[in-house]
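hi!! sorry for the late reply, been swamped w classes. u asked for the two structures so here they r. pasted raw, havent cleaned anything up. first the sequence of the first protein and right below it the tokens
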Amino acid sequence: MGRKWGSRIAIVISVGFLLVAVANLLRDRYVSNPEPTFVRGSEPNLPEPGQVRQGVIRQGEPASPLASSGVLEPLSTDVLKKRIIETLPNAYLTLMAIIQGAALGIMTVLAQSRLVHETPLVQYATTLSQVFAIGLTIVIVTHQYLMLTSIACWVPTVFDTFIPFLLGFGEIWMALAAGRNTSWWIALSSLSLVAVFAFWYTRIRTVKGMFAAKQRIYLQHHRSITVQVFLCLIMFFTSATAAVLDSVRTCPALVNLVLVWGVIVMGLAILTQGEYDQNRVYDAYGIPRLRYRTPHDRASMTSQRRGCLGRAWPAQVVSQAVRSPTSTPRAGPRRRHG
């Protein structure tokens, strides 16, 4: 009974991700080029003269050769740039939604079946920790691609298609290997190696011109990606070492559990580093967003408040003393008459 419900939940999650991807494609298809609407009693909502789509034949005008041959928009430099800018983020997010949905569905089904049959307490905790690490991996990959598509955009190559499938392969392999320690560590080491290549590729494709005159933000962004590369390298060597030790039966179960949580901590560090980098970019360009306050933010806000109060206090006292007509005069010695 439990397996049936696990399969149903996985199917619902996968179908939900697929519907989100299809809705994203339909929105880009129909919302980007809305048709003119006519309301009774008002002027027709026609596009501006310069915004008329190419290929639409106006009444009373002869059909152009391009329109009659089915060419909607001739290719030019500006048209090609516009298509790349519109296609790359949507293609990335749609592809990642499908891959992450498949990985999440497989993880849900197999985790439920593996956790039911695990009898030793330490192995049960290890399998549960591995499932949590897989879910964290899905969140990290999704967040990195959301941040990537909002900050940077470049001309796509074959690596832009290759890397998402490699990441999805590593995630699905980890989901299939949950509960089998050696195979799970090998899957994590392969995924970490792909993540190193993905971060390095992002670093070399992000150039100074993407940040215009804000070169300091560009340097900070590069440093943040470098930190994430080193964290992925540490995760790769840790998982490879654990796979070797577990394959020769020299890694105790408790040490295995501790290593899994060490990998989880490194994953949280990668996620936090990406969030800090995103906040710096948003702050530099004045983009408002909902964010949590870190201890560094609280300390800086406190120092700013103290500095503002220290500078504004004398002027505030003077302005209140000058502007307040009902202020009580200071008591002084009375003058004696006659």
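now the second protein. again sequence first, tokens right under
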Amino acid sequence: MQESDKYLDLVESLLADPPQSADAVADKIGVALRPISKTAKVRDEGAGEGADGLAFEKVSLSYLPDGAPGVMVLTIAPEAAPKIDAVLLKFEGLELTAAPSGRSPAEEAEYSRKEDWGLLAFGFAERARDTLRSVIFNYVTKD
């Protein structure tokens, strides 16, 4: 199994019950998160090697004002990131939902689909359009 396939397998394993707390992220993904604010529960962040040796440039879990989880973003190290064809093949029903404006090579095209818990999205940055850059678990979606 290629390392890029391990990222997709990890995402697939999280779909039924995605982590919604710093402790759950550490348990399921293997990356420890730390609060970015000492006064308010706004966002927890971490980076490094996670489960199965997968490298994450950043893992971020943001919270709503009431403390409920808002969005979790997994930013994948580009060296072993899956290609767009593999993502679209493994996760059926994805639709292009956001396109870069062309102002920055870091902007991402997003392909997403609804899940029971919210919205799952995959981001592909302009600088490498065919390579997965981020996976977004949006727990709060507008109907």
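hope this helps!! also noticed smth abt the second:
Helices lie at 3-14, 22-28, 84-90.
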